[in-house]
Amino acid sequence: MALSPVIGKLLHKRVVLASASPRRREILSQAGLRFEVVPSRFKETLDKASFPAPYAYAMETAKQKALEVAARMYQKDLRAPDVVIGADTIVTVGGLILEKPVDKQDAYRMLSMLNGKEHSVFTGVAIIHCCSKGGQLDTDVCQFHEETTVRFSRLSEELLWEYIDSGEPMDKAGGYGIQALGGMLVEYVHGDFLNVVGFPLNHFCKKLVELYYPPGRHDVRRVKHDSIPAVDTFEDLSDVEGGGSDPAGGIKGGPGGQAAVGTRGAEANGAVESPPPFPADLLGLIDGFKASKALFTACKLKVFDVLKDEAPLKAAEVAGRIDASVCGTGRLLDACVALGLLEKTDGGYRNTEVASRHLASDGEYSLHGLVTRHDDHTWELFTRLEVAVRQGPNAAAGGKVEDPAQSQQTTLQFMRAMHGLSKLTARRVATAFDLSRFTSACDLGGCTGALAHELAHEYPRMRVTVFDLPDVLEHVACFQPGGRPSERISFVPGDFFKDSLPEAELYVLSRILHDWPDDQVHALLGRLSGRCKPGGGVLVAEETVDEDPAAARSNLAAALSLLVRPRGRGRSGAEYRDLLEQHGFRDVQVAAVAGGALHLLLGTRASPP
Ligand SMILES: O=c1[nH]cc([C@@H]2O[C@H](COP(=O)(O)OP(=O)(O)OP(=O)(O)O)[C@@H](O)[C@H]2O)c(=O)[nH]1
Question: Where is this chain compositionally biased, Gly residues type (predicted)?
Fold first, then answer.
């Protein structure tokens, strides 16, 4: 008996795991799946450079592994299995893809790259449904990927070699096994642990729900709140085992990315046609703005501050603290419970861990400033998305560029938003490449110095200058850890378009270039390139506009923000690379951090010809 009924949906099918990995076999059999193992003979030799992102490579490899097995089995006895599952796990660091080491020296090379740094582990998975049509194998491919970030402690050479000599690294992506001795190398893991081990079981089950989600009484249960749809997890199906799905049905994509087992249309005996699959994902999308607004309102009213360190509070007590109506507060608190931001116990409401960490207005990783900025500023911009679509980028704001220095309040709000975002990504940006060859850096438009602190912390020889407008630097004191900056960090006021740029070996442009049109980007890069000595570097961090449709969902928010903003424009990773090369930077290395949300490019200034 499988714990999850979606796994149960596969129990009557012939399922094949196209993998030699003992870890994948164990994860899936422990989940209650019954399957045969037929290792794939597909050679993992696809051209990595031809993929827009590492996860695309992993997904394609997973697909090819599974297709090879399906085709071979079909050829052998003209009967394909019902479902073939393939997977491929890779590690990415500093823009490179690491697979299994070929020998000890290769394992050492990989582990040295990971040493003391954060990296991403991607597993691509392909679930292939097969059938025979007209004497030919017919396949329906469903693919997905999962990313987990892992950070290694700083490890001595001796320890690395001891680990390599244990033999464990050799059949594992990136040269380590997190589930065994390799676990000792790991400082933290963000995301699905099993994804690192080789198979993202949670995401797999969710995909099965999409594929086998049966229309029926389940629909009624899902519309719990009239404003905020319940979060859709595979546990939701626990009481509908055996209900509704058609094991023989073909699988077709539905609206909102949802796939459903094909309904049979009118029954053969002329009975009433069954209704279409309930479009829960689509309705969730339609109502999505209400969820954002509930979160914004709770933040603005400081609900998460009130519930931060205290014992649970009743709605009436919270209402008293935030000076709001009891009825309205109760509704808002329940909405936050439905959104997973609060917990409700007999004693009342209290914050979840994520709300205390990110939504209370204080704390190192608070995103309260970002939420407030979205509520006060971005929300309104997005109401004019239609204008931006009809008239093109930058039209939505009607040419009105917000001047962050227009009032102290706006400047501070902008800085809080940027600080929250930067704190989340700064360590990842600082460690994505090895920057230890630079002894000085200048963060242009470095705002509160969040990234400067991480650079100084990560590279003990490095001095960092934060260069930003005087109105911004006036407020930096309240953002410094312990109230004052480190000795190796200095703040220099100036305008990077007009004033002389501070001297540095490495120039950093983090979330700057998207804000400017091409002529100004060229002007800035021209000044920077003129100031940078041969061998010096430029590090660019940007959200990019990706033309790959598979990536579109993940950077949808960034792409639309770039459309509605009053100036500047979205650019692809390739455009940023071109810009750097046009301004004399060579050997451009690329990396993606924070689940691909931020793209990084590191270029080296070539000697002038
Ligand atoms: O922490 C861990 N990280 C990775 C692993 C194992 O590494 C391999 C990854 O290689 P791949 O995806 O190519 O899979 P193979 O083992 O070659 O099997 P296929 O037949 O499916 O190609 C994978 O086995 C992970 O489990 C680990 O164990 N721990």
Answer: 241-259
pTM: 0.56
How much distance in Å is there from the Cα of 90 to the middle of ligand 1? 8
**Three-class DSSP category at 400:** coil
Dihedral pair phi/psi, residue 436, rounded to 5°: -70, -15
CA distance 43 to 48: 13
Is 177 touching ligand 1 by the criterion CB < 6 Å?
yes
- Amino acid identity for residue 561 in this structure: S
Q: Which residues of 432-457 are buried (b: 16+ CB within 10 A; e: fewer)?
A: bbbbeebebbbbbbbbbbbbbbbbbb
Query: Coil, strand or helix: which one is 591?
Result: strand
Q: How many CB atoms lie within 10 A of CB 391?
A: 12
Nearest to 501 by CA among 473, 472, 528, 469: 528
**Which residue among 16, 17, 23, 59 has the greatest number of ligand 1 atoms within 8 angstroms of its CB, and so is best to mutate?**
23
In 166-309, where does DSSP find H-type helix? 193-197, 201-212, 218-222, 280-286, 288-300, 303-306
DSSP assignment of 545-558 equals: ----HHHHTTTHHH
Tokens of 284: 């969730």
CA 557 – CA 559 distance, rounded (Å) = 6
Furthest CA-CA distance within the chain: 83
Q: How many CB atoms lie within 10 A of CB 324?
A: 16
Single-letter amino acid code for the residue at 519: D
> Catalytic site residue 88?
yes
**Cα–Cα distance, 213 to 563 (Å, whole number):** 35
Divide the 609 residues of the chain into consecutive groups of 10 and give the mean pLDDT of each group.
67 91 94 91 92 92 96 84 96 94 96 95 96 87 95 95 96 97 96 97 91 53 35 34 32 33 40 68 85 96 91 94 94 92 91 94 92 91 86 72 66 91 92 96 97 95 96 90 80 97 98 94 97 97 72 63 79 93 96 82 89
3-state secondary structure 305-348: HHCCCCCCECHHHHHHHHCCCHHHHHHHHHHHHHCCCEEEECCE
Q: Tell me whether residue 32 is exposed, middle or buried, using C-beta atoms within 10 angstroms of its C-beta: 0 to 12, 13 to 18, 19 or more.
A: middle
Closest CA to 219 of 229, 228, 206, 227: 229
Q: What is the CA radius of gyration of the chain?
A: 26
Tokens of 305: 């501050």
First to last CA, the chain: 71
**Reduced DSSP (H G I as helix, E B as strand, rest coil) percent helix, strand, coil of the chain, to 5:** 45, 20, 40
Q: Is there a contact between 503 and 533 (Cβ–Cβ < 8 Å)?
A: no
* Residue of minimum CA distance from atom 21 in ligand 1: 19
Can you tell me whether residue 17 is helix, strand or coil?
Answer: strand
Q: Are the C-beta atoms of residues 19 and 37 closer than 8 Å to each other?
A: yes
Helices 450-458 + 408-432 axis angle, to 10: 30
Q: Is the CB of 122 under 6 A from ligand 1?
A: no
Closest CA to 121 of 86, 85, 105, 145: 145
